[in-house]
Amino acid sequence: MERSILHIDMDAFFASVEQRDHPELRGKPVLVGGDGPRGVVAAASYEAREFGCRSAMPSAVAKRLCPHAVFVKGSMGVYKEVSRQVFGILERFSPAIQPISIDEAFLDVSGSTHLFGSATEIAIEIRRLVLAETGLTCSVGIAPNKFLAKLASDMNKPDGYTVITTETAQGILDPLPVDRLMGVGPSAKARLERIGVRTVAQLRKMPVELLDAKLGEHGVRLSRLSRGIDDRPVRMDREAKSISHEHTFATDLENVDEVRAIIMRQAEDVASRLRKHGRFAKVITIKVRFGNFETITRSNTLDFQTNETSVIHRESRALFDVWARGFRPVRLIGVGLSGLTDCASVGGLFETESSETNKAIDQATDAITTKFGKHALTRASTLRAKPSHGLHGPGSDPEGRPG
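Above: the chain sequence. Below: its structure as tokens.
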């Protein structure tokens, strides 16, 4: 079966976050990094890139290219928080995620298309959710392997997506300069040019034996890439340390019961993902951002590990209710789980019977949603959550396919 691989790349990530959070920077050439004599550009907005500025460039060079650029030191804490949001969105579609950096990842959705539609539909929905929940744009490449997916994501930036299929791959690859292939740096490019190879088409027509003699195994690998062949799997390199679901609303929520209904839906979501990964959580966290952008988090560490929806909801609701008496309009609400383990423990003798009942309910719910879609079954307490607030996860179709 042909794989469906996505490459998700946030657009000018650090600079875009700064422009999102500081409206006065929008439309201006923004450089994130130090502006001293030894400073280096960590990220350049697209306005700055028009002047030739780019990441890893010495700040002194960037200043000469764009004297009116605005330098921002940046905040890694904020960038990590947004990155967690983005990866949380990706987890809704597939557990097969390979992070490449804080703002880039491969996602294997080969096993998810029966739930969410085609790989292209999934890519479109991911882009919509990223924009809706973070206020940022990303570019996505869709292809049957990682090499082509990465290539595709660069072809329609910013804020776009590109599909490369097995049938169209060669036509796209052949005209490209040879240094567009992974692993062709200045040294390899020079050696290839010495044997008359400047384009991918010329590389593809070169005898493999000659490439092996000139570049060794690297030459053989490049020959395969020139034909669009890449068998590398999407590797889940790191165990998830936390699972969370949060949502930013277009307008502040002023009804406390509606916020509680959203917390129930989010508790369902993170608990389901926890069970899907075969993990159990010990720490439950609630995050609230008010209309004035004040953000508060509160956590509770349990005496046991759990993946039960009812327990996670109970604790999340209790944490939120600390603020409910002095309720203020809410801009963002989120539920997170951490302290993840591979084994569970019960909460005590008197909770055993209830725990077994809750597990049976969760098993039945998971079976139904796996067969009929993520929100084929809804708890009564979530009915106050309006669909307009995006609480139906990926898409609004009853079977979980993107709308």
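Residues 346-353, 387-403 have pLDDT under 50 and may be disordered.
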